[in-house]
């Protein structure tokens, strides 16, 4: 089920970048995106999360919550960083999540293998290119670095970091299952059109 869902464009709803998360989520779904992540580094707003879950499910999408495990139990999955692995018993949390998705951020092949062993459904790998969305993102992996991680795991790989219309085809060519996009959607004058364009470019690259 997870692998059938995890393909194409993965839209990130960053509370620091988007002033109105609900209309933004609706726009992304109108553009064809069916996997969304709610990222709120200052803390998840419970009312916003509930509304996003309703919106996502009404549109046939899945909503994943970044960082906040308890909030993720109200959604369709949890995305964890390497720091979360250090602080928690991820194998136990995997059991608590049940059928919900578990994604883990990785920057190396070794981290991807560890994530697979911990029961992850997918790994988030990046940054693919230079990005301003995450201050501690590290050096870009590029296509070669992404291919190395893809080859190290049987899990779907979600590339993230600095991805937009100009390089989404290169992400697809590197073997990733999905391309996670933040700024190219959040800064677009018409997020639905921007999402539609990315979905189209991904499909063309995969054909």
The whole-angstrom Rg is 15 Å
Q: Given this structure, which CATH class is correct?
A: Alpha Beta
CATH architecture: Alpha-Beta Barrel
Q: Determine the structural class based on helices, strands and strand pairing.
A: alpha/beta
Termini gap: 22 Å
The count of strands amounts to: 8
Largest sheet: 8 strands, parallel, barrel
Which regions have little confidence, pLDDT < 50, spanning 5+ residues?
Answer: none
Mass-distribution shape: globular
Number of domains: 1
**N to C succession of SSEs:** HEHEHEHEHHEHEHEHEHH
Number of helices: 11
Task: Give, in spatial order, the strands making up the sheet with the most strands.
Answer: 1-2-3-4-5-6-7-8
CATH-level-4 superfamily name: Aldolase class I
* Portion in beta strands: 15-25%
CATH topology tier name: TIM Barrel
Quote the average pLDDT.
94
Helix residue percentage:
40-55%
Descriptive notes:
The protein has 207 residues and is an alpha/beta fold. The protein has a single domain, classed as Alpha-Beta Barrel (TIM Barrel). 44% of the residues lie in helices and 19% in strands. An 8-stranded parallel barrel has the order 1-2-3-4-5-6-7-8, surrounded by 5 helices. Helix 2 runs parallel beside helix 3, helix 2 runs parallel beside helix 11 and helix 7 (109-117) packs parallel to helix 8 (142-152). The longest helix is centred in the C-terminal third of the chain and has 16 residues, at 191-206. It starts with a helix and ends with a helix.
Offer a concise description of the structure:
The chain is an alpha/beta fold. The chain has helices at 2-5, 21-30, 46-58, 69-72, 82-87, 90-97, 109-117, 142-152, 168-173, 183-186, 191-206, and strands spanning 8-14, 35-39, 62-66, 77-80, 101-106, 122-125, 157-160, 178-181. It has a single domain (2-206), classed as TIM Barrel, CATH 3.20.20.
